[in-house]
Design a protein that fits this description.
Elements (H helix, E strand, L loop, with lengths): L12 H9 L8 E3 L2 E5 L5 E6 L2 H4 L8 H12 L12 H17 L7 E6 L2 H39 L4 E2 L13 H21 L3 E5 L17 H4 L9 E4 L7 H6 L4 E8 L2 E8 L3 E6 L2 E2 L5 E2 L2 H14 L3 E4 L23 E4 L11 E6 L7 H4 L8 H42 L4 E7 L2 E6 L8 H8 L3 H13 L1 E2 L1 E3 L5 E4 L7 H19 L9
Parallel strand pairs: 3-18, 5-9, 6-7, 6-10, 10-13, 13-14
Antiparallel strand pairs: 1-2, 2-3, 4-15, 8-9, 11-12, 14-15, 16-17, 17-20, 19-20
The structure holds the ligand Cc1ncc(COP(=O)(O)O)c(C/N=C/c2cc(O)cc(-c3ccccn3)n2)c1O.
The site of the ligand Cc1ncc(COP(=O)(O)O)c(C/N=C/c2cc(O)cc(-c3ccccn3)n2)c1O has 16 residues, from helix 5.
Family: Belongs to the class-III pyridoxal-phosphate-dependent aminotransferase family.
Pfam families: Aminotran_3
GO molecular function, one term: identical protein binding
Length: 526
């Protein structure tokens, strides 16, 4: 692959060659609403219906005219964009709107959330990882203060002859020269074990096939082994739990249970008490699992996850980066399944399709105010993206939430069309998943296909990409795969999706299903 000028290639050489190999190697020249455009070899502008929309970042479409006009006004007004470490009231303006929405949408929502801004979704997740660790360390400090006080009381009691040291499973008192010596041996061993436990760092919980970003801490929460495994030594580990087996969650978390040793005097006898140690730092959850094929959480899973967090005492972090901002027909997808979070993350559409923005929200009962001056970023909370975010929130909330109703209605209409195709091709399509405009079609596994090209493509995990390539090439519609096996195709357009767009989409899907039913693997080859 070389650059158009034929010169050397310094960026995306591998990526661009691979995209071309699966039929997705197109450079788009213009974008508006749900349409991308490229210029073909005859110099003609070719429209493409976009169902990817920035992986769900464009609830109001590409270059929305109202948002672009607002951006121009903001820039013409010479808004201060980068004024870090000054009063930036737009941050609280956004947080105030978000809190009003959260009070409306969170079941039993009893409070306000503090906002910390970021430049990307993954960065918002990293902020939550850091803040959760502040919370956890405070719990550890409270525990170690208590154990230190108890140790001193034991020393005093034994020293004054008011207590003796009982036999215990942690230390063999061979050769001890008296009660004080026995106590010091016990305190030394308990201190060693406790120090080892405290130094381990937290374990985080997430759901299988989770996607929470690709930065150093957030990649540990993204289960995809290809993306995560090379980097597991860089940050805390994650215990991935099955969303479809909420009944197994308690037992799985119980396996992580561990104790701090507390040496204390009980009725004149020094004994060792095991105190629950807060090893679990947080539970990260997507209300609709994007990378798992747009699978919504069930109500049972939502209730169990909340119960696990309450039992363990860790924050429940609801990651609405993909599912939030109205995409599922409500501002928060978690409102559909009654999931209440301690933290929330938002990104993607809050940037209005032209800015980069993200926000992490922390319930006031958990928020550590010192975090405001501990975490910072040059570009976060900037004046331009904040102005865009306020415009996007205004558009979402306008006319009593008309945009949410449109997202729900368009999503139902699109899901109806996809489901109709699935019903006509039960041997090819497994299911249609998702809520609102966060949908996916899951194709049956083709690794046992009679067609060798199909079998090979499916075995390589490329089936979804090759289906996307065919739909683009022959139907001028842009989709991309999703799901752990890559055999699902995502549909996450803007609310401006028309009935004609839906009809085109249904027709393209029927064409793909016919190819798969006829095992015509060669047609998928670009
Ligand atoms: C729930 C959730 N939490 C954090 C993030 C990270 O946000 P940023 O991308 O803004 O850092 C995302 C953003 N999602 C990106 C995404 C989601 C997905 O399902 C697939 C791919 C992807 C990207 C490249 C190649 C293949 N797949 N990317 C998300 O969906």
């Amino acid at each position: 692959m070389s650059s158009p000028a034929g010169g050397p290639v310094f960026a995306d050489r591998v990526l661009n060659d691979w995209l071309s190999s699966v039929g997705l190697g197109i450079e788009y020249s213009r974008a508006e609403a749900n349409t991308l455009y490229y210029v073909d070899e005859d110099g003609q502008e070719v429209p493409v219906l976009d169902h990817v929309c920035g992986f769900g970042s464009l609830i109001f479409g590409h270059n929305n005219p109202d948002i672009v006009a607002h951006a121009k006004t903001v820039l013409d007004r010479q808004v201060p964009v980068y004024v870090q470490l000054s009063h930036q009231s737009h941050a609280n303006d956004i947080a105030a709107v978000l809190n009003a929405i959260l009070r409306r949408e969170i079941p039993g929502g009893d409070g306000d959330y503090a906002a910390i801004f970021a430049n990307s979704g993954a960065e918002a997740v990293e902020i939550c990882v850091k803040h959760a660790e502040l919370e956890r360390r405070a719990r550890v400090a409270k525990l170690t203060d208590e154990t230190s006080r108890n140790a001193e009381e034991a020393r005093e009691a034994v020293g004054a002859g008011r207590a003796t040291v009982a036999e215990n499973p942690y230390v063999r008192f061979d050769g001890a020269s008296g009660e004080s010596d026995r106590l010091e041996q016990l305190l030394a061993e308990a201190g060693r074990r406790n120090a080892e436990l405290i130094a381990r760092g937290p374990v985080h919980l997430a759901l299988e096939n989770a996607f929470h970003g690709k930065l150093v801490a957030s990649i540990q929460l993204t289960q995809n082994p290809h993306w995560r495994l090379p980097f597991t030594s860089l940050a805390s580990s994650t215990r991935f739990l099955r969303a479809d087996r909420p009944d197994e969650m308690k037992a799985a978390v119980e396996e992580l249970r561990t104790s701090l040793l507390d040496v204390l005097v009980d009725d004149g006898v020094v004994t060792v008490v095991e105190r629950d140690f807060p090893l679990v730092g947080a539970f990260f959850v997507e209300p609709v699992q994007g990378a798992n094929g747009m699978r919504p959480l069930t109500g049972a899973a939502a209730r169990e996850i909340r119960a696990v967090c309450d039992a363990v005492g860790c924050p429940l972090i609801v990651d609405e980066i993909h599912s939030g901002m109205g995409r599922t027909g409500a501002f928060l997808a978690s409102s559909h399944m009654g999931l209440r979070g301690d933290y929330y993350t938002l990104a993607k559409s809050i940037g209005g399709g032209i800015a980069k923005n993200a926000v992490a929200l922390f319930h006031r009962d958990r928020f550590r105010p010192e975090f405001e001056v501990m975490h910072s970023s040059t570009f976060a909370k900037d004046g331009f993206s904040a102005a865009i975010a306020l415009k996007v929130l205004e558009m979402l909330e306008a006319d009593d939430g008309r945009a949410y109703r449109i997202a729900a209605e368009r999503g139902d209409r699109l899901k109806g069309a996809l489901t109709a195709v699935a019903a006509d091709f039960p041997d090819v399509v497994d299911a249609v998943h998702g809520i609102g405009l966060m949908l996916a079609v899951e194709f049956k596994d083709q690794t046992g296909a009679s067609s060798e090209p199909l079998r090979e493509k499916a075995a390589s995990g490329m089936l979804g990409y090759l289906i996307a390539g065919l739909i683009l090439r022959e139907h001028r519609i842009r989709v991309l795969p999703v799901g752990p096996a890559g055999n699902s195709v995502r549909f996450e357009p803007s609310i401006y999706l028309t009935d004609a767009d839906i009809a085109r989409t249904e027709n393209a899907l029927r064409d793909v299903c016919t190819i798969l039913r006829d095992q015509d693997g060669d047609r998928l080859t670009p």
